[in-house]
């Protein structure tokens, strides 16, 4: 997952709204949104290479999401380290509150390449980054995470937060299609606004849009989660093939709604 925008206790009808894009190599095998056969209470897509995930929730309303931290100079040289997506599995298959679980993660933080982790539920969401060893409970409002720290003002983060704010402020029902349209934005910022993350300029340009397209790497899926005050949750996913074409499978767009159960 390379872009997550969260409206936390900001919308009158939904204490949690998440809009996110997962960027990955097209060659990495992936299962689309669904309930996991080995953990039927977990709903999300799945990385079939390491069995982790980029965004998932369970039927009690616990949520986990992860992005990589892009800094080639700071990467863990242990390429055999655990997949960062497994951090979400550990949270959703356990019972620890998010702040307690993050204590466990911090104890093992150096085993992983750089990551941002978002954990919690509609009552409290926590962010943690192992590169900064920093944890923060999210305040009500709109927050964005890409491949740096929470609310780092990269152009794609700032643009998506602004679009999110504008959509949430409009009257009437919040439209999933309107949010998917914003997640599909392929426009690039000018070079003088690009971050310097240690990769060459052409890759910075390629990775700068909200929706990434290239022959080998790009946005594989766009996801939306809505949780309302009555405990109704809806999880949408739209999947894509090479260079942004919608995946030619019946489940290219999925909508799963359910009522959260008490833990």
What would you note in describing this structure?
Helix content is 17%, strand content 32%. With 263 residues, the protein is of the alpha+beta class. Strand 11 and strand 12 (232-239) form a beta hairpin. The strands form 2 sheets. It has a 7-stranded antiparallel β-sheet, covered by helices on one side. Strands 10-1-2-11-12-13 form a 6-stranded antiparallel β-sheet, covered by helices on one side. The chain has a single domain (3-259), classed as Penicillin V Acylase, Chain A (4-Layer Sandwich), CATH 3.60.60.10. The chain contains 5 helices and 13 strands.
CATH topology: Penicillin V Acylase, Chain A
Mean pLDDT: 90
Number of helices: 5
Question: What CATH first level would be assigned?
Answer: Alpha Beta
Helix content: 10-25%
Q: Tally the structural domains.
A: 1
CATH superfamily, please? Penicillin V Acylase, Chain A
How many extended strands? 13
Catalogue the unreliable spans. Answer: 248-252
Give the oligomer, counting copies of the same chain as homo and different chains as hetero. Answer: single chain
CATH architecture: 4-Layer Sandwich
Structural Rg: 17 Å
| Percent range for β-strand residues | 25-35%
What's the story with the biggest beta sheet?
A: 7 strands, antiparallel
- Order of strands, main sheet, comes to 3-4-5-6-7-8-9
Strand and helix order = EEEEEEHHEEEEHHHEEE
Structural class: alpha+beta
Distance between the termini: 27 Å
């Amino acid at each position: 997952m390379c872009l997550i925008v969260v409206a936390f206790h900001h919308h009158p009808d939904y204490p949690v709204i998440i809009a996110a894009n997962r960027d990955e190599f097209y060659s990495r095998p992936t299962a689309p949104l669904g309930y996991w056969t080995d953990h039927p209470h977990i709903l999300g897509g799945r990385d079939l290479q390491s069995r982790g995930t980029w965004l998932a929730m369970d039927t009690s309303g616990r949520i986990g999401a992860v992005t990589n931290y892009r800094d080639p100079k700071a990467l863990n040289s242990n390429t055999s380290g655990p997949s960062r997506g497994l951090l979400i599995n550990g949270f959703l298959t356990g019972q620890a509150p998010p702040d307690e679980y993050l204590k466990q993660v911090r104890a093992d933080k150096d085993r992983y390449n750089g990551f941002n982790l978002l954990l919690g539920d509609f009552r409290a969401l926590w962010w943690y980054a192992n590169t900064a060893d920093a944890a923060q409970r999210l305040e009500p409002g709109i927050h964005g995470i890409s491949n740096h720290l929470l609310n780092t003002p990269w152009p794609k983060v700032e643009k998506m937060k602004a679009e999110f704010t504008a959509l949430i402020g409009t009257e009437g029902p919040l439209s999933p299609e309107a949010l998917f349209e914003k997640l599909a934005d392929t426009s690039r910022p000018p070079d003088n606004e690009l971050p310097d993350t240690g990769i060459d300029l052409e890759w910075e340009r390629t990775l700068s849009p909200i929706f990434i397209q290239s022959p080998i790497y790009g946005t594989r899926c766009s996801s939306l989660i809505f949780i309302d005050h009555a405990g109704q949750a809806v999880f949408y996913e739209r999947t894509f093939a090479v260079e942004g074409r919608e995946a030619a499978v019946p489940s290219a767009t999925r909508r799963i709604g359910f009522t959260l159960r008490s833990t």
